[in-house]
Amino acid sequence: MTTTAERSAPHPAFTDAEAGAQEFPDSNARRYNYFTPAKRRQSHYEDVTVEVQPDPRHYLSQGWLYGFSDGRGGYPLEWTELKAWGSDRPVPERFPGSGGKGYDWPAHGWHEFRDPNEEWELTFYRYNSNVVRQINQNVETARETKAFEQWTPNWVTFVERNVGAWMHVEHGLGLYVFANAQRRAPTNMHNNAISVNSMHRIRFAQDLALYNLTLSEEIEGFDGTAHVATWNSDPAWQGVREVAEAMTTIDDWAEAVFVANVVFEPLVGELFRSHLVQQAAPGNGDFVTPTVVGAGEHDYAERDLRYTRAMFELLTDDREFADHNVAVLDRWLSEWTPRCITAARKLQPLWSQPDAKPPRFEDGLDRAKNRFAGILSDLRLQTPKELTQ
Amino acid sequence: MSRQSVAKAHEKIQELAWDPLYHSPVSQYGTDYTFQKAKKKDPLKQVLRSYFPMQEEKDNRVYGASDGAIRGNMFRQVQPRWLEWQKLFLSIIPLPEISAARAMPLLFNTVPNPELHNGQAIQMIDEVRHSTIQQNLKRLYMNNYIDPAGFNSSLRNFQNDYCGTIGRQFAEGFITGDAITAASIYLTIVAETAFTNTLFVAMPAEAAANGDYLLPTVFHSVQSDESRHISNGYATLLMALSDEGNHQLLERDLRYAWWNNHRVVDAAIGTFIEYGTKDRRKDRESYAEMWRRWIYDDYYRSYLVPLEKYGLVIPHDLIEESWNQIWNEGYVHEVAQFFATGWLANYWRIDPMTDEDFEWFEHKYPGWYSKYGAWWENYARLSVANGHNPIALEDVDYVYPARCWTCMVPCLVREDMVMAEVDGQMRTYCHEACRWTDTVAFRPTYQGRETPNMGQLIGKREWETLYHGWNWADVVSDMGYVRDDGKTLVAQPHLDLDPKKMWTLDHLRRCPPLQSPNVLLNEMTPEQQAAFHADYVRQGPAGRPAPAA
Ligand SMILES: [Fe+2]
Ligand SMILES: [Fe+2]
Predict the structure, then answer these.
(1) SS3 sequence, chain A?
(2) What would the mean pLDDT of A159-174 be, rounded to a whole number?
(3) Whose CB has fewer CB within 10 Å in chain B, the N or C terminal residue?
């Protein structure tokens, strides 16, 4: 709130305080030395991310200082049922004369996770700025070339209602699944990756909302509010809504991320976006919607799924708790797979709405199921029997 | 933004908020505050389509300046006295930043207004920005400044040192306990609205005066996000105020948050600005002058006081008392002296003060020399190892202080020290306000009212206790503050990098063992404890022993 006039600076003085000006112990020790890099050389991403969130199991000698009313502070490992090696060892006891040392870094396997997208602020803002610039440009070009005039009336209705309704899914998951989960994972690597995921979804929700606004300005009779009614009461959407809301009730942060990115996204998200919207649009004269929806599709398929895979692979491959983790993940799969399939099936009436029909619903669903099974096999998980329903 | 005005776009994205029909979201954070659900306006009016390119543009300026600083050999003109203190500051600050990100979801369920959540999500990612951009700045210092020691071990140091514990309150206080106390009052209403001015405006000005123009570039960029966060906090505060039942809790939380921020932030930033600078021009503002203007006038008089008419009970007494601490009790000077006394447990080097420094201090704080001058002359005299021990273990008229159990800064204004027996332990507090925080505020009832969601102060809160009875060489080795020759300390009480002038583990090995004041206190009989207290409050200023009765 304060602004202040630039203060005058004294004359510069030469101090010779640059690297290499003198030799002395540590004069060449120019590397963050408190963690082991994942590869031979530590990455820029690791340098700005690793260890920012502390852990009493290694360096945090005085422990957490503030707790909730139950006395638990910081980032309890029990906030997920999954375990990484070393999780069961007790927090080192510190007492008068105990010294400060905990276990050797990393103390447990959670600290081994690295975001393969290597997201930090520089990469994050560059990527998302490019996306919004690209979308702006595409929509603007479409407007200038009157591309929306090619749309059939049924397609206009389809977009105002159904593409519109999808913004609510993105917004709800972005805030109440992902932004919520980034408070709860045990390392900074997890939480930063999850917060980036959260912003992808919130951005995509806004992309869809602003696209909807453009369409209501450009297309005669386009109802810019229809998406709300569709989301609130169209029976075809209530399955998606029910399962999206159900995901916000999940207490376990890893379960929330797993269900959203491993189960819901391939079975419902990609089914709707890739196998319906992207397939149906060109036949109905629409070459613009796929570029907007494609940005969100790309976020998920190329980035968010990528970190999710790395995060859970580490756990199903854990040297101590692989079996435990696989059993927990199997349980989550058998609970959430049928719920997502039910939501997917309820969407089926959408397939018959456009004039130019997309490939059959059952074919799309089969491809979604294959994709899902492929992700599971990458994670060394079995396809749940509920998938065949 | 093309065609669509920002206002229209913003109005459109309001359509994104929806209430659940089938399931209520999980409730993971509690509050004793109550909120009425009411249609609210999103105070931020931020649309990501313009937000991302705006932030990218800011980044371009920051990284452009970084490249320029390296090409232009900025480090040939940087004052090592200043940059050494950045080893402490930049070890602390990335955690508070990321904690602010983590704090945002505490508000989702507790403040039932989905219109505010968009702004909170943007604050979340802003804070990820701040944390990583600061880690990056520190990395740049490590790579380009003459002495990387302490930068290279930064986050380990921060996590196992007593200075880290002080700084961590400014992070953990955001993310635990009553959700509104933490993420709204402590974080946004006090830490961000009041104290980021000293962090992100005063610090950069001082950096520039010490030849470092990179820190200003980064921190001004950070500060430019802050006004959005302040708006988030203000919107929540007004909603809280609209329910009378919250007023008592608001009063409690403002008292706690104000006092803790004063204790922690003024200790650290005050020291950096007054003792980490080489700029001794008489017309440069002292920390006290800056504080008076930015915190007292801009925050207290202009921001807080107008809220009184909505029923906010403002801790006038504590604000005046903070000023009294800074102006009359020498709070910042006492803290700086303590940091320098304990240099051997640090991970940065502290430059002795010179005649020029003395003159400036005397000019800005009349009477300074008679209190602190002799001690700093001793500090300079004892700075190069020459058969003597570090100053903490030499007789220089300084009594090693007891630690405040609440704010974890030692009890330095000796006359204010109070004690209380809590949970079977005799605790010392730097001030009545810190005792109140522990014994009254952070409890499951407050003034007869149930406060089941209030947090707890936990942890091993006196660093010295962990090392009670240890040899100092083992303490420093255990913490890892040793350079790559295996014996030279990271910390030094001077800036000379000649290896022959630097302190090593061998110098510490022959020192007497570390004693925890709190362990000793708890070994005393009640009578001895009373005598200890009576003596303690007669000590000072500048840590002097009590005069003979
Ligand atoms: Fe920040
Ligand atoms: Fe205190």
Answers:
(1) CCCCCCCCCCCCCCCCCECCCCCCCCCCCCCCCCCCCCCCCCCHHHHHHCCCCCCCCCCCCCCCCEECCCCCECCCHHHCCCCCCCCCCCCCCCCCCCCCCCCCCCCCHHHHCCCCCCCCHHHHHHHHHHHHHHHHHHHHHHHHCCHHHHCCHHHHHHHHHHHHHHHHHHHHHHHHHHHHHCCCCCCHHHHHHHHHHHHHHHHHHHHHHHHHHHHHHHCCCCCCCHHHHHHHHCHHHHHHHHHHHHHCCCCCHHHHHHHHHHHHHHHHHHHHHHHHHHHHHHHCCCCCHHHHHHHHHHHHHHHHHHHHHHHHHHHHCCCCCHHHHHHHHHHHHHHHHHHHHHHHHHCHHHHHCCCCCCCCHHHHHHHHHHHHHHHHHHCCCCCCHHHHC
(2) 98
(3) C
